[in-house]
Design a protein that fits this description.
single chain, Beta-Lactamase, five-stranded antiparallel β-sheet, two-stranded antiparallel ribbon, 8 helices, 7 strands, about 40% helix, elongated
């Protein structure tokens, strides 16, 4: 038995508060697909009705999996979020699409209808995913009256496909206003992605007596924020290493030509631009002494 702490969002008027619930659950082993080591064989949808240990274990597993700092492909992360929504998202099970912000964005849909609705948004230039990625808050949008809906053309097409209600949940950047520990008055940053649910009923029932969708979205956003922070740290480390090599190359040239380091750097940069070479690679060749380029003596160098 392992003590697991997971977060659950609850409504509190216009604001949202984060409560933490402690439970002791045995963590189930995840069977992996030999053809795709990133894909776990998820269990069947747990029985509906009141909360059950099976559903609670699945929710715990889902939160741990989605928030995991382990590196994974964005497409696999989006697909996992959509699959957990299918298993835990409500009754009847909604279609869902998850879109991770990026260039290009990464999209995963729970089935043909979800994927078709996402394509319709792009064709029509309106819809819930576009609004959520632009910063719209989490909300439920009825589509019963397509003409009065926020996205009249999208709503009309969605109604034809049997959708009566849309739920939108931004994958909030927890480093900003989405974090319980954020500084008072901090402004939320751009969302890291969007989760949209398409319901066949106007009033869906939460599965198992709870509403885990915001918590699942929050866990998925936590992984994305960790990934972004890790990528940024790697970029800074690479830039630092490159800078060290460049400083060493400046010292080598300054000693060779008897000139100030500023003049040595100017010649290094001039040569890189003139010969379309990467500045770091050029500096490395100077430091290593491998095929040193024929530099010109910088101004101020000794004869």
């Amino acid at each position: 038995m392992v003590s697991i702490c997971y977060a659950k969002w609850i409504s509190a008027g216009p604001a949202q508060a984060l409560t933490v619930r402690m439970e002791a659950f045995p963590l189930p082993r995840v069977a992996m697909d030999a053809a795709d080591p990133t894909a776990a064989h998820l269990p069947h949808r747990p029985p509906t009705g009141r909360p059950t240990p099976e559903r609670e274990r699945l929710l715990t597993r889902a939160l741990l999996d989605l928030a995991s700092p382990e590196d994974r492909e964005p497409a696999a992360h989006a697909a996992s979020l959509v699959e957990y929504i299918r298993l835990l998202g409500g009754e009847p099970a909604p279609d869902a699409v998850a879109v991770l912000a990026g260039r290009p964005p990464v999209t995963a849909g729970s089935g043909p209808r979800a994927e078709l609705l996402r394509e319709l948004e792009e064709q029509l230039g309106e819809g819930p995913v576009r609004d959520t990625l632009a910063g719209a808050p989490a909300e439920e949008v009825p589509l019963e009256d397509a003409a009065a809906a926020r996205w009249p053309r999208f709503a009309a097409r969605a109604r034809e496909l049997g959708v009566l209600l849309v739920t939108t949940v931004p994958l909030a950047d927890v480093a900003y206003g989405g974090s319980p520990d954020a500084a008072e008055g901090a402004q939320p940053g751009p969302p890291l992605g969007a989760l949209v649910l398409y319901h066949d009923v106007a009033t869906p029932q939460p599965a198992g007596g709870s509403a885990p969708v915001p918590a699942l979205a929050g866990a998925a956003a936590l992984h994305l924020r960790h990934r972004r922070t890790r990528d940024h740290a790697r970029q800074l480390e690479q830039a630092l290493r490159s800078r060290i090599v460049i400083e060493q190359a400046k010292g080598v040239l300054a000693e060779r030509f008897g000139c100030p380091t500023d003049g040595a750097f100017a010649e290094l940069r001039r040569y890189a631009r003139a010969h379309q070479r990467n500045l770091h690679d050029l500096a490395r060749s100077v430091v290593d002494g491998t095929a040193p380029p024929p530099f010109r003596k910088p101004a101020g160098g000794s004869s």
